Structures are given as structure tokens and as C-alpha cells.
Amino acid sequence: MSSGDDVGNSEGSGQTPTIGYPPIAALRRDFIWGVSTSSFQIEGATREDGRGPSVWDTYGQKGLIANHDTGDVACDHYHRYLEDIGLMRRLGNQAYRFSVAWPRVLPGGRGKVNEPGLAFYDRLIDALLAAGIEPWLCLYHWDLPQALDDLGGWTTRDCVGWFANYAALVAERYGDRVKRFATFNEPSIFTLFGLGFGYGKRATSSSDVLYRAIHNINLAHGAAVEIVRARVTGCSVGAIHNFQPCLPSTPADGQAAERCDTCWNKAFPDPQCLGTYPKSMQAAIEPHMQTNDLASICRPVDWFGLNHYSPVFVKADASSVVGFGFGEKPAEISLTPNGWPIMPDSFRDTLLRVAKRYALPLYVLENGMGGYDQPDETGMVSDNDRIAYLRGYIGAMNAAASAGADIRGYFAWSLLDNFEWDSGYSVRFGLTYIDYPTQRRIPKASFEWYRGLIKAARSR
Ligand code: FCB
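Above: inputs. Below: predicted complex with beta-D-fucopyranose.
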């Protein structure tokens, strides 16, 4: 492939992307190209084979999701996982990051193990391996068992033991076949959006509860790293963080932006990778700190998982327990259809910042674009805006690699359109379009584009 050329890839299922590939010459020869998903967003079958309810089932039942959507069916991946692995075979991705649904394997979060739930991931993992795709298993992508939330969830220190036992079950069951383990996906996002913002539907009224949860989750991460390492020979362990520039919305919002940077970007990776909380957070954490906690949190990890979509524009907000909220975005910045700034240079800067701060090999484990795609009259989904986004961001990653960041893989979010949390099914991030009424999978133009890129990159 000639890097940076503008020649489209004409192979594929009839879709002909006309947008060329970005430069990738600075990426390693053994670079891993992947796709990511998560359990609640795709599996469906929420009441099947003994699965227990998660907090996201509850939010759906309470009507807290856009359009009153629920995860009950989602992409029906629980039944269609072989078809989805077929899509991956076609895409040519070397690795697939998925998450295990805690309430599927431990319906009450602890105690009685659900064998049919465990067996589902056996089937999934075996089929991935048979297809030559490396499974990357994330222990927690936000679907906390409701039974544990009823007991205080992440706000009680008991959760460290609950999570450790769950991690042990998963590591022992799958560790013969799975070697890549992530503890948590985006702990800052589920704590900030779950507990942090005063205006959120699920927010707490106390910042103390938020800081307690942050510390407990960090402890649970450290415990899980130890457990996976002790039980899985040849494992490679890390955590996945959403790290992005927090920019002041107006010149008066500088302090709020710094507070956001602390809570969003550093509250988890700093103690986990550097063994210390950011200075401005230490007093708030102090009441929850016990002897040796920092040593238990800061267990050696093998890599840093980075999710990045766009910077955030921050404003001061005294009504929020964290003291900040989201402000106006400057008018001159282009936005994705779902309103997120498109700023690939800031991805390059983030990669360099994270590489320097934590000095770990980096895997980009999520990046992608949210839109409102629809098939055209011929049945094709021509998501050229997504291709342009991916081209810009992958090019920016190449620029970071050429400036010295040790980047080892890139996983697109996501293989399929899926349940996008509070937005339900209204926003689509997939390389594959899901026609929800029929569950038909339609690879979008971006699927063919990414497929061509992977092929070209791997044949370098
Ligand atoms: C990330 C989440 C992922 C998905 C993308 C769009 O924050 O980890 O589940 O919702 O955003």
C-alpha cells in the first residue's frame, strides 16, 4: 500500500469506499488490528439461561433510556455470535475485545455460579480461536449485577472482594484459552456519569460517595490484576481508560477544566500505574485510605488500554458534585453527527501524553464515530463521514507513533451498531449496520474500508 494515497479499495461486498487510507508506515509490523464490543450493548437474551439483572436492565425498566429502549434483545449476539464471528473473519481483524457479563455468570453478583452463562463464553472463545482471532476479555463493561448495586455497589468497600471472586471465576474458567485480560473499561466514565454529575439521572448528592467509589474501584482493579496473574499462565493484563483533553469552554473555565482532567483522566491511571492519586484529589480520598491501599492498587500491568473519541469542552458548574459540567463547543470545530468534536490532532497529542506519563505499551481499544446511518435505496450504508473520521484518527495515531509513542494495536468501536447506553439504539457506531427489527447485519462502507486497511497493513 502506498501510504496516504487516495486510491479507494474496490474489493468487498459491493460497497466501494472512495476515501483512501492514512499513512501507517510508522506502525509496527506486528501491530494488532481489532474491533471492540461489550456484553450489555450487544448480547440481548437478558432473561435467558439463568442470567441475573444488571443495573442497565433496571435503567431500561425505569424508562431512563432514550425512546424507552432496553437491552433485552440488542443485537441478539447471544444467539448470533457465530454470524458475528463470520463478519470478523471477513473483516480480517486479528483480535476481538469483548466483555463478560458479570450477571450472566454470577446472577446475584456473588455466590451461586450460573453454568449456562459460563458456557456461552466457552462457545464464543472457542469459535474465536477456531477463526484465528485472539480474544481480549474485559471483566467489567458497566453491567453491574443489580443485586450488588442493592448492597451499595461500588460505593461499599465490599465490592473489592466481590470483584476479586468474580475475576477468579473468569480467570480460572477461560485462562487456558484467553491470555489478554482487562480489568475495567473506562472507570472514570461510569463513576462520573453514574455518580458524579449533579444533573445526571443517576447522580449521587455527595462528592464523598463518588471519591469512595473511585478508591474502591481502584482497589478492585489491583486485586483483579493479582488474581489474573496468579491464575493465568502467560497472561497479559491491563485496564482500559478513556483519556482525552479537557478544554475550557470559555477563558473563565480554566479551573473547571483542570478539575475535569483530574477526575476524568487521572483518578484511575495515576494510582494504578504511578502509585499515587493526583495531588488535588488526595484530601478527598484520604478518609477512605487504609494502610497499604496504594500498593494494592498499583500492581504491575503489561499495557495501557486507551479509549479516545474527542476532547471535551468544560465549564464551571457549582450545581454538580464535581464542580464542572459540559460547556459550549467553539463554533469553528467540526462535529460528528452525534455532536462530538472531530479533532484528530488532539488524539495524537493524547497518545503522546499518555505514552510519556505512564511509560507503558499502548493499545487503542476504542475509537470510532457515532452517526445516524440508514441504508440507501439499494440497501447500502455509505458512511463516508465515518471513513473520513477513521482515516483522520488512524493517521494521527501514525503521527504519534512516528513521534515515539509505543502503540501496539488499534481496535475500532464497534463491530456492530448497538445499545449506546442512555441514547439507546438512536446512535450508531458500528462498522456493520443492524436492522433491529430483522436483526439483519449489513456491513457498511466503513467495514470494507477498514477491511482493506487491515489487509494492506498486514501485507506490508
Ligand atoms: C465508550 C464506551 C463504549 C461506547 C463508546 C461509544 O465510552 O466504552 O461502550 O459506548 O463510548
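The two ends are 7 Å apart (CA to CA).
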